[in-house]
Design brief:
Strand order of the largest sheet of chain A: 1-4-3-2-6-7
Radius of gyration of chain A: 19 Å
Number of domains of chain A: 2
Strand content of chain A: 15-25%
Largest interface: A-B, 29 and 29 residues
Distance between the termini of chain A: 53 Å
Largest sheet of chain A: 6 strands, parallel
Helix content of chain A: 25-40%
Number of strands of chain A: 11
Order of helices and strands of chain A: EHEHEHEHEHEHEHHHEEEE
Oligomer: homodimer
Number of helices of chain A: 9
Chain lengths: 286, 286
């Protein structure tokens, strides 16, 4: 596996590969890989001639109060894991390479970032959209895989690519769970044992919502109330949000929704904020 | 000459040309061509296998109070002129093609747009940067030519392309003048005969500044004072700004500048706002 640091070198490499007719798949990451990342890399590998993974803990998507400096890192382990998943190139730039002196450009969206994880972190999704626009221009992939774990991020990137007419496909990848159902996240390492145990309620509450839908319960408030009640049973859970929103633009759900909706939640256990989601398809039901 | 309306069709055309090894030059315009536009097209033709010109009067770079609806248009004449300048493709999308329902993405810059023509038109350069990012992704050119008439726009685009790592070269093209020195502009058609006559003072004042520099006068205030005095002699001239700013980021000039600076001005004659500029190189002089 090749490690490339400089954006210009990465771009030149990709241009040469494209000129040689190779299909380039891309998985942007912030590192500290788990099975969720590896699943996306294998998914990319299955339909590309070569896979590029970027590892960049992007400072512009962290708020000043957030955990940028203590975000978990282990480059050597990440390289071994990526290589085992069939990755050909690890693009590993420095913040100075990505944001040199005088840097001043931002890609921002007007609607999708205003809800859910964007409410209390206004610049977060602008940071995400901007760094992804840069990475797409540097890596020049034919497609890029984004996990459904960060569903709002996936929607932001799909909208950015469509709005700016960027010439690549955005491919959703599955959310991967631990055996007990907790969504995999690099931040799970922060959880204390009792927090880790109670955090499984997030998955259970989402499965309960799916069950309600299958039983013909289609009222937004009923679903949200039961999900909220389940999570409130866990004493360490501090709810940030639990919301049902219409796809793909995250408009507020109607009292009796129709079509595909995102049931998304963010809950803190101790100091660790976890997110999880599921897509509920209300079809034509009333 | 081929006329293409749909962004997807334009992108597919350009990808096929690139795959065939063709070098694509690009000149984005708002139409109503004059010799200034044609000069940029010929400049592109000289170093490309084919030249694409876009004609799009971009609504997002006009303020609500501005002249979007009455911006001069003559598509058939523009096509004839572009063809005569060696243009292969005219890309002519509708506003609905460029900004479909749900569109919500903006590319904005933090510094360069805050001065000169950006002061009273905050969203203008975000509109320009956004539409150019879109056009570059649609037309996929190897290089794009931007005239030095809109020097601040040229700087905005150069910065956007560098910051977002876009894979194309931005090539400056010369400002073209009428025989009496007035900078060519699609808006010159709005000038009444007496306004048109007095407007030649803009070019004369810039040439006077160049003359002062050659004579060893290097004080910012002296240069600006004399340029201002010259323009004030014309009774119909209403000065918007006359400024000297350091290149390439348009920082305020020192009292005794060093290096390359932009002497830029915007002056209204009647209802018509004209801009003009020249680059003054103060070299190592003191």
């Amino acid at each position: 596996m090749l490690v490339i640091n400089r954006p210009t070198e990465m771009q030149a490499f990709s241009k040469a590969q494209r000129a040689a007719g190779k299909i380039i798949g891309f998985v942007p990451t912030m590192g500290y890989f788990h099975e969720g990342h590896l699943t996306l890399m294998r998914q990319a590998r299955a339909r590309a001639d070569l896979v590029v993974v970027s590892l960049f803990v992007n400072p512009t998507q962290f708020a000043p109060t957030e955990d940028l400096s203590k975000y978990p890192r282990d480059f050597d382990r990440d390289c071994r894991m990526a290589e085992s998943a069939g990755v050909s190139v690890m693009f590993f730039p420095t913040p100075e390479d990505m944001y040199p002196d005088g840097y001043q450009t931002t890609v921002s969206l007007g609607e999708i970032p205003k809800v859910l994880c964007g409410v209390n972190r206004p610049p977060h999704f602008a940071g995400v959209a901007t760094v992804c626009a840069k990475l797409f221009n540097i890596v020049l992939p034919h497609f890029a895989v984004f996990g459904e774990k960060d569903y709002q991020q996936l929607l932001v990137i799909q909208q950015t690519v469509a709005d700016l007419n960027m010439d690549l496909e955005i491919v959703p990848g599955p959310l991967v769970r631990e055996p007990d159902g907790l969504a995999m996240s690099s931040r799970n390492v922060y959880l204390q044992p009792e927090e880790r145990k109670q955090a499984t309620v997030l998955n259970r509450s989402l499965r309960h919502a799916e069950q309600m839908l299958r039983q013909g319960i289609h009222e937004t408030t009923k679903i949200l109330d039961e999900v909220t009640a389940l999570i409130r049973r866990e004493p360490l859970a501090q709810i940030d949000y639990i919301e049902l929103r219409a796809l793909p633009r995250l408009a507020a759900a109607a009292a009796r929704p129709r079509g595909r909706h995102l049931l998304a939640l963010a809950v803190k256990f101790g100091k660790t904020r976890l997110i999880d989601n599921t897509v509920l398809d209300f079809k034509g039901t009333t």
